[in-house]
Design goal:
The structure holds two protein chains of two kinds. By secondary structure, chain A is mainly beta. In chain A, 0% of the residues lie in helices and 54% in strands. In chain A, the strands form two sheets. In chain A, strands 2, 4, 5, 9, 10 and 11 form a six-stranded mixed β-sheet that branches. A five-stranded antiparallel β-sheet of chain A has the order 1-3-8-7-6, with no helix packed on it. The radius of gyration of chain A is 14 Å and the shape is globular. Helices cover 0% and strands 57% of the residues of chain B. Chain B is built from no helices and eleven strands. In chain B, the strands form two sheets. In chain B, strands 2, 4, 5, 6, 9, 10 and 11 form a seven-stranded mixed β-sheet that branches. A four-stranded antiparallel β-sheet of chain B has the order 1-3-8-7, with no helix packed on it. Chain B is globular, with a radius of gyration of 13 Å. Classes of the chains: A mainly beta, B mainly beta.
Chain lengths: 118, 114
């Protein structure tokens, strides 16, 4: 079984301030972790992913996340918020097989809406 | 080309209509997915196709009928939908069969059932 908890359904930060979006996961198998961003009326765009190797992962648009196994966390950060970062952010975990074809289930958190204050 | 293209972008249909959503990718991905996303909710998996075969059906009502004509195309046929089926329908694809290899999502089709 696997699950994702995103703390804070809505986060507001000032332009130029640190962005911190929290994600904790639960997985019975080694997890693969993702952050996706969704702008209004758009699909999902992958920001970054952790599969194996280096635990600090850098993504697009200046975002990064650190996989901490001991804390079962994968928090998303950005040093300086920009107005264009306003969007919905989803943390997701995969790893559990759900078919004989080897498909893995991608489980999403409930999302965090990021608002940037000018 | 790293795009997943969905058509149409918007669709309004009556409860007695039959319509189809289309999804296309040219990345050589062999797994394709349909997700349903209600407002302010995360995407929910509906179907998975692996190598053009239906590998997962997440107990989706039969009024939704997926089809994978070839490795680049994925359709979702809609018939006798209910107003509660109104949502954003997202298509995705991934290399191989594991979504850990990175899923690419389309922009979605905003469906309204009246």
């Amino acid at each position: 079984a696997q699950s994702v908890t995103q703390l804070g359904s809505h986060v507001s930060v000032s332009e130029g301030a640190l962005v911190l979006l929290r994600c904790n996961y639960s997985s019975s198998v080694p997890p693969y972790l993702f952050w996706y961003v969704q702008y209004p009326n758009q699909g999902l765009q992958l920001l970054l992913k952790y599969t194996t190797g280096a635990t600090l992962v850098k993504g697009i648009n200046g975002f990064e996340a650190e996989f901490k196994k001991s804390e079962t966390s994968f928090h998303l950060t950005k040093p300086s918020a920009h107005m264009s970062d306003a969007a919905e952010y989803f943390c997701a975990v995969s790893g559990a097989l759900i078919s004989n074809f080897g498909n893995e289930k991608l489980t999403f958190g409930t999302g965090t809406r990021l608002t940037i204050i000018p | 080309d790293t795009e997943v293209t969905q058509t149409p972008k918007h669709l309004v249909m009556g409860m007695t209509n039959k319509k189809s959503l289309k999804c296309e990718q040219h990345m050589g991905h062999r797994a394709m997915y349909w997700y349903k996303q209600k407002a302010k909710k995360p995407p929910e998996l509906m179907f998975v196709y692996s190598y053009e075969k239906l590998s997962i059906n997440e107990s989706v009502p039969s009024r939704f009928s997926p089809e994978c004509p070839n490795s680049s195309l994925l359709n979702l046929h809609l018939h006798a939908l209910q107003p509660e089926d109104s949502a954003l329908y997202l298509c995705a694809s991934s290399q191989g069969q594991g979504i850990k290899t990175e899923a690419f999502f389309g922009q979605g089709t905003r469906l309204t059932v009246v």
